User: What shape does this take?
Amino acid sequence: MGITKSEHFTDHQNELANVLKALGHPARVAIVEYLIQHKQCICGDIVNELPLSQATISQHLRELKQVGIIQGNIEGNSICYCLNPLVFEQITKFMGIVIESVMKNKCC
Amino acid sequence: MGITKSEHFTDHQNELANVLKALGHPARVAIVEYLIQHKQCICGDIVNELPLSQATISQHLRELKQVGIIQGNIEGNSICYCLNPLVFEQITKFMGIVIESVMKNKCC
DNA sequence: AAATATAATCGTAATATTGCAATATAGATT
DNA sequence: AATCTATATTGCAATATTACGATTATATTT
Assistant: This one.
């Protein structure tokens, strides 16, 4: 099929999964890491950094933006992208709950 | 194409992306949440919990296991699965670095 | 040993993702 | 206004993912 049965899951589960899926590609991890170092970028910066075409980079940026991982502000000719902290706080919170739970009870 | 050009990225980027991709599906988020609450499960528990077939659940469990998110121990007839804290610590560390970076510098 | 219980695997269909060339769009510059 | 620069979009091919029925494998129970 290839189609996820989203309707059977909670909004929270779908939203978290969407964000994590967006981060689940090495090029998009690389883009986030570029933004960690340089704080901001335009599409062309990433095109110069990664061995992927401009069209492909643009697509990856769109996916990251769609789930709120980055935000883009138009600056004249180009678009300035940067990280959105809120999303990462959400993810960290989830991961924290997992870790806390695991620590309390060892595996069978 | 549908094929990720993994060879162009670092091991760290590929590994992190693989773990996040594995968590990037609502059913697999739901499995992790089940494990947070119940500490452990067998395949049949999840089959009873989620509206997906046994074959599909088994596949999702295998994906989670492949990237080290869960571990499975054979217990007679069935297999007991539980969470592996190490992976989540890795993810949290990455997320923490992102947040720290973002806090230092607002967007353009 | 036959029957049952549990879970993995195989085969397959439907759909999604990845990547790129080509093209389109929009602001900046001459 | 013509050109340049930066990026988005479209269309397409190759591959991956999701899901399930059917089957298989293994351990347990009768």
Observations:
- Chain B touches chain A through 56 residues (CB under 8 Å).
- Strands of chain B lie at 70-75, 78-83.
